[in-house]
């Protein structure tokens, strides 16, 4: 088979994800050092517990601002790191934040209670009554504890996304309350004009990033592009493709492999946003998403009328050709995870091998157009249908299908179980981590 190859992609050099990750870590480290400087400059209390309480409170404030940056959905970060990884960092940073806030409360209350001999609860009540901002801090801590409780994996799986998201919105109220507490009672905050300016700049930048990334940018893009439904095309009994058009779509910075949060502005669904990947590479004139019915919201899309306005947030995701490291690629799709893989097949250059895993041939959505596209691109397409045992994507099977798989970029998209198993197989075959690309479509914040 003849092969069309693009210019080789260098396998060395600094990758976009490394640049973004290093930038985040470096920024956090620099700000941690600045906070330590202002803490020392403000002087120490005679009580060691109060000193520890103030220090943990300052670093909690820093982590809270960092949390806002992680959920701001800034395009530069999202394209390089991916919303799924940012969500993971947000989650673990959140648990660290809770520990710091609890430490701050315990150390401060114990420190003030020691010389007075008061019970810690009575001391907390006294501080809330007599010190400005303490009551607001208590309310902020309670709100963050509630948000943390619903973010635990056990609870998160039992809540609808809309419920979880509504509870999470109280985090912004907690941030405002915590900041006003810092203004009123923060010794380091008021220790010098420079310290005050630093904290205002830190909080202003973090809140400004959230407003810009989650409010202003989506509003501006939707006013500019004015997306509407062009056509609704059934692909099977439970899968439908929706074609969209709009203005100046050639200026929308969407790439194959990315997804949007879609709101179809019908009378009964305008309030509901769902993440769906593009199932075709953007061509500057139309966008396409392909959806499998998994609930009332996705099933209702089959009945959306052409001409319906659509509000889209995005594009999001790092599952793109931006992260290529090798000239050739393997695209592995499972079930409806074929949608971003289908778009990548149209976009990625070099020799491509596509492995499409389904339970039965009847489940192979978009297979016919993928076959035609593979022929046009001179790519290899393997439809793998059948039971899960034995695993048709086990290391030996992958090595037989793609003998040079360790020399290729590998893109994997499918159900979590399949994605995890394939990643394990790739590690056994010696595929470097930098060549394995996957993305879980989880929402940051």
UniProtKB/TrEMBL annotation:
Pfam families: Ferric_reduct (PF01794), NAD_binding_1 (PF00175). It is found in: Membrane. Residues 222-322 form the FAD-binding FR-type domain. Keywords: 2Fe-2S, FAD, Flavoprotein, Iron, Iron-sulfur, Membrane, Metal-binding, Oxidoreductase, Transmembrane, Transmembrane helix. It is a multi-pass membrane protein. InterPro entries: FAD-bd_FR_type, Fe3_Rdtase_TM_dom, FNR_nucleotide-bd, MRET, OxRdtase_FAD/NAD-bd, Riboflavin_synthase-like_b-brl. Its cofactor is FAD. PROSITE patterns: FAD_FR. Gene3D superfamilies: Nucleotide-binding domain of ferredoxin-NADP reductase (FNR) module, Translation factors. It comes from the Bacteria. The chain crosses the membrane at residues 24-44, 50-71, 92-113, 133-155, 167-185, 197-217. PANTHER family: 1,2-PHENYLACETYL-COA EPOXIDASE, SUBUNIT E (PTHR47354:SF8), NADH OXIDOREDUCTASE HCR (PTHR47354). This is Ferredoxin reductase family protein. It comes from Streptomyces yaizuensis.
